[in-house]
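hey
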């Protein structure tokens, strides 16, 4: 039960973080609702740009899952640009977390990376309640390389 409540609070915190505050008082109220023991989910750097969409747009968010276990979600702590411009295991050496079948996540955008995995050249930028980063699209439980209703990065 505690994990469910914490997950809901983290999701709400993410929504508040994406929406611009109306004024300083609104920001203080929103910050006060997040428990102090909640883990820090703020990531370094912005999400990849999506043509024609803003950070708060929910129309581009799709929920997916993986067919494989312990799929690495990657980033490059030293160079966000290197990883974001051409995702691969070499360009995104830092592992932020792992996803497993049954755990859904949002796919922010997709692009062809510099490494093909399992015959699929696409990489996706995913968002979970605890971390975000790049993952080879090959591991997503979907029959095609290109995901539907998912913008290009």
């Amino acid at each position: 039960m505690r994990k469910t409540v914490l997950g809901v609070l983290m999701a709400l915190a993410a929504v508040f973080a994406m929406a611009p505050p109306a004024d300083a008082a609104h920001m203080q109220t929103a910050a006060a609702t997040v428990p102090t023991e909640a883990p820090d989910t703020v990531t370094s750097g912005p999400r990849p740009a999506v043509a024609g969409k803003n950070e708060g747009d929910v129309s581009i968010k799709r929920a997916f899952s993986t067919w494989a276990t312990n799929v690495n979600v990657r980033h490059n702590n030293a160079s966000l640009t290197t990883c974001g411009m051409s995702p691969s295991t070499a360009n995104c050496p830092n592992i932020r977390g792992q996803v497993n079948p049954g755990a859904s996540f949002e796919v922010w955008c997709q692009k062809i990376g510099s490494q093909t995995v399992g015959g699929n050249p696409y990489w996706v930028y995913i968002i979970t309640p605890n971390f975000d980063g790049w993952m080879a699209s090959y591991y997503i439980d979907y029959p095609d390389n290109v995901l539907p209703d998912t913008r290009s990065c």
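Residues 70 and 98 are 5 Å apart (CA to CA). Residues 2-18 form the longest helix (17 residues).
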